[in-house]
Amino acid sequence: EDQVTQSPEALRLQEGESSSLNCSYTVSGLRGLFWYRQDPGKGPEFLFTLYSAGEEKEKERLKATLTKKESFLHITAPKPEDSATYLCAVQGVDYKLSFGAGTTVTVRA
Amino acid sequence: KAGVTQTPRYLIKTRGQQVTLSCSPISGHRSVSWYQQTPGQGLQFLFEYFSETQRNKGNFPGRFSGRQFSNSRSEMNVSTLELGDSALYLCASSSAQGAQNTGELFFGEGSRLTVL
Which residues does chain A have within 8 Å of residue B44's beta carbon, measured at their own beta carbons? Predict the structure, then answer.
């Protein structure tokens, strides 16, 4: 069974204080690794897809990287509006998505 | 372009009752997936429909069922509700055509079900 573990569970940052979130996974034939952002009371919002080790994607202050066993979401110089829960998911050979429990990021001004 | 719309947003039921949730995908999207989100288990995949056919299913009991209509709108039903069914039920649509889902999903805001 595909498994996704995210760490830390929660992260409190000062505005401008860069940090990284970790997503480690085991999957039977990775078709893709996905990052989503979820705000309270909302559904997840798609951020990135990574397909193979070494791949990187960037969007504003966010950068996602992928190795054979884990992915990192780097938040550079975060702002309060970056506060959210960040979810990682993997898609295996059966095309099902398995989500991690998420990392809740709080950025203080 | 309108997003994924789910109704109702909130509902309260008692044990043993049944519930039907509705989802309207983004216009042009033919794939609709359903997820259950709880604090303890996180997001868990229920099932996926494409062109009125269920093409993938998660590990949930048969009390959970769904269907998709010719206009791509989807419903899910939970029968004989249990306390543990209290959760946020999320619908997501995808622009995937004949191929299976790419994992790039557009989620609705969810239907929050409370079972008393």
Answer: 99
The one-character DSSP state at A81 is G
Residue of A42, A49, A101 with shortest CB distance to B104: A49
Q: Across-strand partners of A89? A: A34, A99
Spatial distance between the Cα atoms of A86 and A100, rounded to a whole number of angstroms: 9
Contacts of B106 in chain A (CB under 8 A): 46
Q: What is the pLDDT along chain B (116 residues), one digit of tens a residue?
A: 689 999 999 999 999 999 999 999 999 999 999 999 999 888 999 999 999 999 999 999 999 999 999 999 999 999 999 999 999 999 999 987 666 667 899 999 999 999 99
**Phi, psi of A80, deg, nearest 5:** -55, -30
- Exposed e or buried b for every residue in B49-79, given b needs 16+ CB within 10 A? bbeeeeebebebeeebbbebeeebebbbebe
Burial class (CB within 10 angstroms; exposed 0-12, middle 13-18, buried 19+) of B45: buried
